[in-house]
Amino acid sequence: MLTAYFLIFSFIFGAIIGSFLNVLILRLPEDKSLGGRSHCPHCGRGLGFLDLIPILSFLALRGKCRSCSTQISARYLIIELTVSCLFALAFYWFSPVTLIGFLEVIRVWFIVCILVAVFVLDFEHFLILDVIVFPASVVLLLFNIGLDYLSGGFQNGLYGMTVGGVFSAVACSGVFFSMWAISKGRWIGFGDVKYMLFLGQIVGFPLTIIGFFLSFFIGALVAIPLMFTGKYSLASKLPLGTFLSIGFLSTFFYGQQMLNWYLGLIGLR
Q1: 117 closest CA partner among 224, 57, 191
Q2: Distance (Å, rounded) from C-alpha 162 to C-alpha 149?
Q3: Which residue, among 201, 215, 195, has the nearest Cα to 258 in the 3D structure?
Q4: What is the DSSP-derived secondary structure letter of residue 71?
Q5: pLDDT tens digit sequence for 37-69
Q6: How far apart (Å, rounded) are the C-alpha atoms in residues 65 and 228?
Q7: 120-154 pLDDT, tens digit each
Q8: Which of 191, 196, 160, 161 is nearest to 175 (CA)?
Q9: pTM of the predicted model as reported, rounded to 2 decimal places
Q10: Is the backbone peptide bond immediately before 225 cis, with ω within 30 degrees of 0?
Q11: How many helices (H) and strands (E) does the chain have?
């Protein structure tokens, strides 16, 4: 019963954080302050408390502004629901009963926030912002150090959160930097190079390799059909940060199973 309460709390808390991410995603590309009252972008009316209840306000108002009845983008609802479900999934996945377990859940919640923010910003604006990536990389490093300290993970060396995460971050960022330099920015953007400093620390070594290839595989699954329909060419831009977010989130939850399957396939397990 207690677990059910925690799952409900995780879902509600995720909706609240998702609502904040909507503000961040809307304002950061326009270099606006995160403070100040939210308002309808169409009529300019300030939003009241009943307009700002995550998920419920959107459903109650049928996705329209209370004042001008202009349709509100479903993106707001999708982000809130996505973060809610991922927060609940993270709690269910770890089912924490110790301090370390709860810290691991909070770490995953933080990771989810960054992945969702970068997913949307890169998808909509082809932007991976330094103001998100650099602070997030430092915070994640502190999480990893703290968890390794409490669990004795430093003894695992390269396979620990801290050492393995730093190694993966530097190695993968270096690979991306080489791709960026060789192609002079035509293959990938420099934002993707910086994003790997965060992503490499999520799963560490060797699962970062899974995340790396899974992200490119997902990108190819999207790009190839678009090429056949004429909506994409090799000269077109694709939001790689969006695919990296999906690939590394999938790797976090299922990367070990994918690695075990592959090792078994080639007879090494």
Answers
A1: 191
A2: 9
A3: 215
A4: B
A5: 676 666 666 666 666 788 988 888 777 777 777
A6: 39
A7: 999 999 999 999 999 999 999 999 999 999 988 88
A8: 196
A9: 0.91
A10: no
A11: 9, 0
